[in-house]
Amino acid sequence: MTVDEKELVQRMKAGDKQAFDVLYEKYKNTLLRMAYLVSGQIYDAEDIVQETFVKCFLHIGDLKKNEGFKPWLFQILYRTAYRQMKKRKREIPEEDIAIRADATDGITSLDRIIQTETDRKVKLAVQSLDFKHRAVVVLYYFNEMPTKEIARVLGCTEGTVKSRLFAARKKLKGKLVMWEEGGADNEESRGRTEHGRLYFL
Question: How many domains does the chain have?
Fold first, then answer.
Protein backbone atom coordinates (compact mmCIF):
# COMPACT_ATOMS: atom_id res chain seq x y z
CA MET A 1 0.00 0.00 0.00
CA THR A 2 1.27 3.46 -0.88
CA VAL A 3 1.51 6.34 1.57
CA ASP A 4 -1.24 8.10 -0.38
CA GLU A 5 -3.57 5.12 0.03
CA LYS A 6 -2.91 4.93 3.75
CA GLU A 7 -3.80 8.60 3.95
CA LEU A 8 -6.99 8.00 1.97
CA VAL A 9 -8.00 5.23 4.36
CA GLN A 10 -7.36 7.51 7.32
CA ARG A 11 -9.44 10.26 5.74
CA MET A 12 -12.19 7.77 5.04
CA LYS A 13 -12.18 6.79 8.71
CA ALA A 14 -12.75 10.46 9.48
CA GLY A 15 -15.83 10.43 7.25
CA ASP A 16 -14.29 11.88 4.09
CA LYS A 17 -16.63 10.82 1.26
CA GLN A 18 -14.19 12.00 -1.40
CA ALA A 19 -11.50 9.65 -0.07
CA PHE A 20 -14.00 6.79 -0.26
CA ASP A 21 -14.80 7.69 -3.88
CA VAL A 22 -11.10 7.56 -4.81
CA LEU A 23 -10.68 4.12 -3.23
CA TYR A 24 -13.88 2.95 -4.89
CA GLU A 25 -12.60 3.93 -8.33
CA LYS A 26 -9.28 2.25 -7.63
CA TYR A 27 -10.69 -1.13 -6.61
CA LYS A 28 -14.11 -1.45 -8.25
CA ASN A 29 -12.96 -3.19 -11.45
CA THR A 30 -10.72 -5.62 -9.59
CA LEU A 31 -13.55 -6.53 -7.24
CA LEU A 32 -16.02 -6.83 -10.12
CA ARG A 33 -13.71 -9.26 -11.87
CA MET A 34 -13.34 -11.40 -8.77
CA ALA A 35 -17.05 -11.31 -7.96
CA TYR A 36 -17.96 -12.30 -11.52
CA LEU A 37 -15.53 -15.21 -11.66
CA VAL A 38 -16.66 -16.44 -8.26
CA SER A 39 -20.41 -16.03 -8.77
CA GLY A 40 -20.66 -16.76 -12.49
CA GLN A 41 -23.27 -14.06 -13.05
CA ILE A 42 -22.87 -10.41 -13.94
CA TYR A 43 -25.83 -9.16 -11.92
CA ASP A 44 -24.78 -11.12 -8.84
CA ALA A 45 -21.27 -9.71 -9.20
CA GLU A 46 -22.52 -6.15 -9.32
CA ASP A 47 -24.70 -6.72 -6.24
CA ILE A 48 -21.82 -8.34 -4.37
CA VAL A 49 -19.49 -5.43 -5.11
CA GLN A 50 -22.09 -2.84 -4.18
CA GLU A 51 -22.74 -4.57 -0.85
CA THR A 52 -18.99 -4.90 -0.29
CA PHE A 53 -18.41 -1.16 -0.64
CA VAL A 54 -21.39 -0.34 1.57
CA LYS A 55 -19.98 -2.57 4.30
CA CYS A 56 -16.54 -1.07 3.73
CA PHE A 57 -17.86 2.44 4.26
CA LEU A 58 -19.93 1.52 7.31
CA HIS A 59 -17.26 -0.57 9.05
CA ILE A 60 -14.02 1.17 8.06
CA GLY A 61 -13.55 2.04 11.72
CA ASP A 62 -13.07 -1.68 12.44
CA LEU A 63 -9.88 -1.73 10.35
CA LYS A 64 -7.02 -1.52 12.83
CA LYS A 65 -4.11 -1.01 10.42
CA ASN A 66 -4.57 1.23 7.40
CA GLU A 67 -1.98 -0.71 5.40
CA GLY A 68 -4.23 -3.77 5.68
CA PHE A 69 -7.04 -2.13 3.71
CA LYS A 70 -6.73 -4.21 0.53
CA PRO A 71 -6.89 -7.70 2.11
CA TRP A 72 -9.62 -6.44 4.46
CA LEU A 73 -11.66 -5.22 1.48
CA PHE A 74 -11.19 -8.52 -0.35
CA GLN A 75 -12.20 -10.38 2.80
CA ILE A 76 -15.49 -8.47 2.86
CA LEU A 77 -16.07 -9.35 -0.79
CA TYR A 78 -15.26 -13.02 -0.22
CA ARG A 79 -17.61 -13.31 2.75
CA THR A 80 -20.36 -11.42 0.93
CA ALA A 81 -20.05 -13.66 -2.12
CA TYR A 82 -19.98 -16.79 0.04
CA ARG A 83 -23.17 -15.81 1.84
CA GLN A 84 -24.89 -15.07 -1.44
CA MET A 85 -23.84 -18.38 -2.99
CA LYS A 86 -24.90 -20.23 0.16
CA LYS A 87 -28.24 -18.44 0.15
CA ARG A 88 -28.91 -19.55 -3.40
CA LYS A 89 -27.83 -23.08 -2.44
CA ARG A 90 -26.94 -23.97 -5.98
CA GLU A 91 -24.07 -23.71 -8.40
CA ILE A 92 -24.65 -22.09 -11.78
CA PRO A 93 -24.93 -24.71 -14.58
CA GLU A 94 -22.02 -24.47 -17.00
CA GLU A 95 -24.41 -24.00 -19.91
CA ASP A 96 -25.97 -20.99 -18.18
CA ILE A 97 -22.55 -19.47 -17.52
CA ALA A 98 -21.59 -19.91 -21.16
CA ILE A 99 -24.75 -18.19 -22.35
CA ARG A 100 -24.21 -15.27 -20.00
CA ALA A 101 -20.53 -14.98 -20.83
CA ASP A 102 -21.24 -14.92 -24.56
CA ALA A 103 -24.18 -12.52 -24.38
CA THR A 104 -23.73 -9.49 -26.62
CA ASP A 105 -26.67 -7.43 -25.36
CA GLY A 106 -25.98 -4.86 -22.68
CA ILE A 107 -22.20 -5.22 -22.63
CA THR A 108 -20.84 -3.63 -19.47
CA SER A 109 -17.37 -2.63 -18.36
CA LEU A 110 -17.32 -5.90 -16.42
CA ASP A 111 -17.75 -7.92 -19.62
CA ARG A 112 -14.82 -6.14 -21.19
CA ILE A 113 -12.65 -6.78 -18.14
CA ILE A 114 -13.36 -10.49 -18.28
CA GLN A 115 -12.90 -10.69 -22.04
CA THR A 116 -9.41 -9.23 -21.79
CA GLU A 117 -8.38 -11.51 -18.94
CA THR A 118 -8.83 -14.98 -20.35
CA ASP A 119 -10.73 -17.12 -22.80
CA ARG A 120 -14.20 -18.57 -22.40
CA LYS A 121 -13.15 -22.14 -21.71
CA VAL A 122 -10.86 -21.17 -18.85
CA LYS A 123 -13.68 -19.12 -17.32
CA LEU A 124 -15.97 -22.12 -17.56
CA ALA A 125 -13.35 -24.38 -15.99
CA VAL A 126 -12.78 -21.98 -13.09
CA GLN A 127 -16.51 -21.56 -12.49
CA SER A 128 -16.99 -25.33 -12.44
CA LEU A 129 -14.93 -25.49 -9.23
CA ASP A 130 -16.60 -25.42 -5.82
CA PHE A 131 -16.63 -22.05 -4.08
CA LYS A 132 -13.55 -22.39 -1.86
CA HIS A 133 -11.31 -23.62 -4.68
CA ARG A 134 -12.72 -21.09 -7.13
CA ALA A 135 -12.00 -18.22 -4.73
CA VAL A 136 -8.37 -19.29 -4.27
CA VAL A 137 -7.82 -19.56 -8.03
CA VAL A 138 -9.36 -16.15 -8.70
CA LEU A 139 -7.30 -14.44 -6.00
CA TYR A 140 -4.04 -16.12 -6.97
CA TYR A 141 -4.19 -16.18 -10.77
CA PHE A 142 -6.49 -13.33 -11.71
CA ASN A 143 -5.58 -10.89 -8.93
CA GLU A 144 -1.97 -12.11 -8.60
CA MET A 145 -2.24 -12.08 -4.83
CA PRO A 146 0.48 -13.91 -2.84
CA THR A 147 -0.58 -16.95 -0.83
CA LYS A 148 0.12 -15.20 2.47
CA GLU A 149 -2.27 -12.38 1.61
CA ILE A 150 -4.88 -14.83 0.32
CA ALA A 151 -4.75 -16.57 3.69
CA ARG A 152 -5.60 -13.25 5.36
CA VAL A 153 -8.51 -12.71 2.99
CA LEU A 154 -9.94 -16.19 3.46
CA GLY A 155 -9.21 -16.42 7.17
CA CYS A 156 -7.20 -19.63 6.91
CA THR A 157 -3.56 -20.72 7.04
CA GLU A 158 -1.15 -20.26 4.16
CA GLY A 159 -0.77 -24.04 4.07
CA THR A 160 -4.51 -24.38 3.48
CA VAL A 161 -4.31 -21.90 0.61
CA LYS A 162 -1.48 -23.87 -1.01
CA SER A 163 -3.38 -27.11 -0.53
CA ARG A 164 -6.49 -25.67 -2.18
CA LEU A 165 -4.42 -24.30 -5.05
CA PHE A 166 -2.87 -27.71 -5.61
CA ALA A 167 -6.28 -29.39 -5.63
CA ALA A 168 -7.76 -26.69 -7.87
CA ARG A 169 -4.94 -27.00 -10.42
CA LYS A 170 -5.52 -30.75 -10.58
CA LYS A 171 -9.25 -30.28 -11.14
CA LEU A 172 -8.72 -27.57 -13.75
CA LYS A 173 -6.18 -29.66 -15.61
CA GLY A 174 -8.59 -32.58 -15.66
CA LYS A 175 -11.42 -30.41 -16.93
CA LEU A 176 -9.36 -28.75 -19.66
CA VAL A 177 -7.79 -32.03 -20.81
CA MET A 178 -11.25 -33.60 -20.96
CA TRP A 179 -12.45 -30.77 -23.20
CA GLU A 180 -9.35 -31.10 -25.36
CA GLU A 181 -9.95 -34.80 -25.85
CA GLY A 182 -13.50 -33.92 -26.77
CA GLY A 183 -12.23 -31.88 -29.70
CA ALA A 184 -11.86 -28.44 -28.12
CA ASP A 185 -9.36 -25.99 -29.54
CA ASN A 186 -5.87 -26.82 -28.29
CA GLU A 187 -4.85 -23.34 -27.16
CA GLU A 188 -8.15 -22.70 -25.38
CA SER A 189 -8.04 -26.07 -23.67
CA ARG A 190 -4.64 -25.39 -22.19
CA GLY A 191 -6.09 -22.42 -20.37
CA ARG A 192 -3.26 -20.06 -21.19
CA THR A 193 -3.48 -16.31 -21.16
CA GLU A 194 -1.09 -13.47 -21.83
CA HIS A 195 -2.44 -11.69 -18.77
CA GLY A 196 -1.38 -12.56 -15.23
CA ARG A 197 0.03 -16.02 -14.51
CA LEU A 198 -2.72 -18.38 -15.58
CA TYR A 199 -0.73 -21.47 -16.60
CA PHE A 200 -2.44 -24.57 -15.24
CA LEU A 201 -0.70 -27.25 -17.27
Answer: 2
